[in-house]
Amino acid sequence: MNKALTLYNKNSLEFINEEFKIEILTNDCLFTEGPVWNKEGYYLFSDTTANVIYKILPQGDKEVFLQDAGTGNPEDPDLKPGQAGSNGLAYDNSGKLLICQHGGHAIARYDGHQISPFITSFENKPFNSPNDLVFHNDQRLYFSDPPYGLKDGKLNPSKFQSFAGVYCWNNGNIQLVCDKYQYPNGVCLTHDQKHLFICSNKPFEKFISIYDTSNNLFEKILAEENSDGIECDRNGNIYLCNKDGLIILDKDGQRSAIVELPAIPSNLCWGGGYMKDLLITAREYVLLIKGFLK
């Protein structure tokens, strides 16, 4: 048995490669977040505190991809110290990079040459500090907007939103999907795109919500769990980032396994040629588990 793996359900070994190894790609960042796989064969991730997006080269080294990616002033009194940078990242169907900007209080788009504002406000007010985002196949964009990046991590309704929400952008129109959380965090879609998962990392809101993407309505609570980032696999399993490590839930929300990591994870994404590798951001670390899925 792999020492890093704790099983709650032995059926987990039907999809997990038990002999996986956790590779440390880097451990000298400040606070890593928002990993994303580029189909050209590399990963990007945010160092939110450093205000930099890094590229992971095929051999595992990192290089600066974008400076000042969050377009925030580190001295801005409206921001929490160290929170001027970018967070979640995602690609649209044209290959442009979408960036959750704490400092810019917006979703920005990078076309390979410059960063431009993309989604900047809701009901004529800037967002708080967009955190995570995910594209539906039909190019609807779901994203969370907690106040983590604001001063003291608290809402500032005189300048920004008066609540923390999860939104759906659809061809220029923005719909508020969820306002049940004070600190909505990770968002992900099921493999069939029919359901959206939303979670929080705060102990006082320990529940994962499921929304029906056909109408963006609340469906049910999946599990009483906290998570920062969240991801799904093709078999319906759910992967959570919390203080215990990488938590794997089955499709019914029951714990099936835990992977122990060298630091508390913040987010994760699938990558590699067959999308079976798992890249995990964890405080100063970026970790790679090649061939995690069978």
UniProtKB/TrEMBL annotation:
| Domain SMP-30/Gluconolactonase/LRE-like region: residue ranges | 31-282
Q: Any idea which GO molecular function terms this record carries?
A: hydrolase activity
- One matching Pfam family, short form? SGL
- Highest taxon listed in the record's lineage: Bacteria
Enumerate the InterPro entries for this protein: 6-blade_b-propeller_TolB-like, SGL, SMP-30/CGR1_Lactonase
Q: Mind telling me which SUPFAM superfamilies this protein's record contains?
A: Calcium-dependent phosphotriesterase
> Is Hydrolase among the key words of this record?
yes
UniProt keyword annotations, A-Z: Hydrolase
Q: Does the keyword Cytoplasm apply?
A: no
Q: What is this protein called?
A: Gluconolactonase
Q: Which organism is it from?
A: Flavisolibacter ginsengisoli DSM 18119
**Lineage, uppermost ranks:** Bacteria, Pseudomonadati, Bacteroidota, Chitinophagia, Chitinophagales
